[in-house]
Write a structure and sequence with these properties.
The protein has about 230 residues and is mainly beta. The chain has one domain. The chain is about 10% helix and about 50% strand. The strands form 2 sheets. Strands 3, 4, 5, 6, 7, 8, 9, 10, 11, 12, 13, 14 and 15 form a 13-stranded mixed β-sheet that branches.
Length: about 230
């Protein structure tokens, strides 16, 4: 029996379908999907060049320090319902994104069940293929999972993200020439999502895992998520 799976090409963001053979208990069988929104803050001084270069251009500060909040509106992992759960990520990249050696950590809402935490850990470590599969290739050190209170709120256009003891953030879209419209990059090959709202961090603090980042005033983005492995 076979299953279709994504395989990332050399640039981060492009995928092709490949056929994997199920050869034992470790074979890919789980079906998953996530729909929602991500608000991401990073250390780049201008809008993150990784979005359009698909990870081939270096970050503006030589390395990329990033946290993200995720609101899952609808999602599942096999029979486990993931809808309504909040998730957070920390990623510390030593240079050009596509070269890998990332350090990462995962945060899951304290209201999530044990089964949901296990499912999200498999998804965000890339072990079950699909959109997040590249994380299994590019993350060299995974610092583990913390289950803590997480809030992800929208006030006007601003996304307020708080991960207790770790993140305090507020991300607001950048307005364009028409001040009633946000600046949006559309139809990109960016792995997170094709349409990216260019944003700025009004407030962005991350503390934890030996890191103390203040990314206020730096690059940020808001992206609708439509992820999965089928």
């Amino acid at each position: 029996m076979s299953v279709l799976c994504y395989r990332p090409l050399c640039r981060i963001g492009r995928y092709e379908w490949v056929e994997l053979r199920r050869t034992g208990s470790n074979a890919l069988t789980e079906s998953w999907s996530l729909k929602g929104e991500m608000a991401l803050s990073c250390s780049c001084t201008v809008f993150c060049p990784c979005v359009l270069s698909l990870g081939e251009h270096p970050p503006t500060e030589d390395r990329c320090q990033t946290w993200a909040g995720i609101r899952i509106d609808d999602g599942h992992f096999d029979t486990v319902d993931l809808s309504g759960i909040k998730v957070g990520l920390m990623m510390d990249l030593p240079g050009i994104m596509s070269r890998g050696n990332w350090t990462a950590a995962l945060f899951v809402d304290d209201n999530a069940s044990v089964h949901a935490v296990k499912a999200l850990t498999r998804i965000f470590t890339g072990r079950v293929g699909g959109t997040t599969h590249l994380l299994s290739i590019l993350v060299g050190q995974f610092l583990g999972v913390r289950q803590v209170p997480i809030t992800y709120e929208t006030k006007g256009e601003t996304r307020i993200v708080r991960i207790e003891k770790y993140v305090d953030g507020a991300i607001t879209p950048v307005r364009g020439k028409d001040t009633n419209q946000n600046v949006v990059i559309r139809n990109s090959e960016y792995w997170i999502g094709p349409d990216v709202i260019v944003s700025r961090a009004d407030k962005s603090r991350f503390r934890g895992f030996g890191r103390n980042w203040n990314l206020t005033g730096r690059s940020a983005e808001i992206v609708k998520l439509d992820w999965g492995n089928s």
